[in-house]
Amino acid sequence: MSGYATPYEALGEDGIRALTSAFYDYMDSAPEVAGIRAMHGKDLAPMKERLAEYLIGWMGGPQVYAEKYGSVCMTSPHKGYAIGTSERDQWLLCMDKALEQIGAEEALKQMLKEPMFAIADMVRNRD
Ligand code: HEM
């Protein structure tokens, strides 16, 4: 038993911010994800905050991103980028490494596995 009903209950806002920080730090440093790093602006700090705001709601907490930006559909902000299976898998690798980095427990990783894949695959806009 994990003792929590949602990833938000497990991590809280601080945990989710630590996760997105580790996510973009990995993206910024690992050669195998250089392809998606190159799609992003030089300064990743604003993205750390935006992804945290999005994930806080997506993981079962308050809808911070929706309140600020209106929409929670992730396909439109990604329309201008060529995202295929390779880019999706690079993104998911950053997430796996970030979960490891923050010391997420196995139950949480399992809880996130399928929905994270599903949302990353939804953002994909080509093969
Ligand atoms: C599947 C691979 C993905 C790639 C390659 C990708 C790449 C990108 C890029 C290049 C941007 C624009 C960054 C900038 O403005 O500098 C962006 C924005 C964003 N991405 Fe992704 N992304 C992916 C998946 C996801 C997923 C699955 C989520 C949510 C769980 C997500 C959440 C966001 C958010 C919240 C923004 C900011 C949108 C805004 O408010 O303008 N991304 N992404």
UniProtKB/TrEMBL annotation:
<protein>
    <submittedName>
        <fullName>Group II truncated hemoglobin</fullName>
    </submittedName>
</protein>
<dbReference type="Pfam" id="PF01152">
    <property type="entry name" value="Bac_globin"/>
</dbReference>
<comment type="similarity">
    <text>Belongs to the truncated hemoglobin family. Group II subfamily.</text>
</comment>
<keyword id="KW-0813">Transport</keyword>
<dbReference type="InterPro" id="IPR009050">
    <property type="entry name" value="Globin-like_sf"/>
</dbReference>
<keyword id="KW-0479">Metal-binding</keyword>
<dbReference type="InterPro" id="IPR001486">
    <property type="entry name" value="Hemoglobin_trunc"/>
</dbReference>
<keyword id="KW-0408">Iron</keyword>
<keyword id="KW-0349">Heme</keyword>
<dbReference type="InterPro" id="IPR044203">
    <property type="entry name" value="GlbO/GLB3-like"/>
</dbReference>
<dbReference type="InterPro" id="IPR012292">
    <property type="entry name" value="Globin/Proto"/>
</dbReference>
